[in-house]
Amino acid sequence: MAGVSVLALRGTFQSGVAAGLTRRYELMLDRRPVSITVDNGQLGIPAGGPGDDGPGGADAALSTTPALFLGLLLGQIR
Asked: Burial letters for 12-36: b for 16+ Cβ neighbours within 10 Å, e otherwise?
């Protein structure tokens, strides 16, 4: 289910809305780390989990279940 959530994130990401934004996020889906970067509006989800700087280097972190994250992405949960 975590893979589906990451795929949904890629599909719902709006690069135009994120233009000019550069951030690093740490997402924990069922205790599995997923690093997410936004670099001038471009989404990056590197394979292999968090970067060398670990979750402490993230601008924001979220820990949730894949189902809840997917619901948030798709607007089913507000």
From this structure: ebeeeebeeeeebbbbbbeeebbbb
pLDDT of the chain, 78 residues: tens digit per residue: 778 888 999 999 999 999 999 999 999 999 899 999 999 999 999 876 555 455 568 999 999 999 999 999 999 987
Collapse the DSSP code of 56 into the 3-class scheme (helix H, G, I; strand E, B; otherwise coil) and give the result: helix
Encoded tokens for 47: 């394979």
The DSSP letter of residue 57 is G
- Residues facing 26 on adjacent strands: 35, 61
pTM (whole model) above 0.90: no
Residue 4 has, within 13 A of its CA and on its CB side, a CA count of: 10
What angle do the packed helices 66-73 and 2-12 form, to 10 degrees? 20
